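Supplementary Note 3. Input sequence used for the single-chain structure prediction.
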Amino acid sequence: MWKKCLPNRVLADAGVISLWRLGTIWPGKTRVVVPELAGGMGAETAMRRTTARRLLYLIYVIIGLIVAWERGYITVAFLKALLSALLAIFLWWLVLLGVSLHIH
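The predicted structure, written as discrete structure tokens, is reproduced below.
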């Protein structure tokens, strides 16, 4: 039976394989078999594509925020209310102690 192995830290640190691209081992053997990444491309190419995709998502969200701000969907009052809500969620114990986390 094939099973997933833990990432080989030496290979991962050397940039040969990504920590998320795990190889497989045959039980009882110590040899690591690194599967082909995305149709045979190398790990470096796969990482570049992943980085480019993440950058495109980030640009997409930033443009959406700018458009929403300019069209009035996001206002200063909305941001204050959102920040107050987030503070109350993450610092709930302060709210129980009577601290007001409302941002004015």
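The chain has three domains: 1-35, 42-73, 75-104. DSSP finds four helices and two strands in the chain.
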